[in-house]
Amino acid sequence: MAGVENSIKPTHFLASSEPRTMTVRRKVLVDPHMCEGHALCVHSAPDVFDVTDGDVATCSERPSEKLWDQVAAAVDACPRGAITVVEDQ
Ligand code: SF4
């Protein structure tokens, strides 16, 4: 019986099956050389993007968490691929 007892592994050292969450800070950028200012991003995410001068979009680089779905929609809507989301160091 001593052999059986020795084969039992301490479960507290095993990996948890609980999903792990990791917060990754990110920010959104508009490439002014790519942007053509037609404001599709503003329609998708009006609280994040703005085209005040009519030429190039500006954005809030670190919008609140609830606005990131809108940012994703803006990335998809931008015909120039001018919007990127990068990890914020
Ligand atoms: S949709 Fe893209 S190209 Fe158009 S204004 Fe917004 S960032 Fe610029």
Automatic annotation (TrEMBL):
Pfam families: Fer4_13 (PF13370). Keywords: 3Fe-4S, Electron transport, Iron, Iron-sulfur, Metal-binding, Transport. It comes from the Bacteria. GO terms for molecular function: 3 iron, 4 sulfur cluster binding; metal ion binding. Its cofactor is [3Fe-4S] cluster. The keyword Protease does not apply. InterPro entries: Fe-S_cluster_ET. The keyword tRNA processing does not apply. This is Ferredoxin. It comes from Mycolicibacterium sediminis.
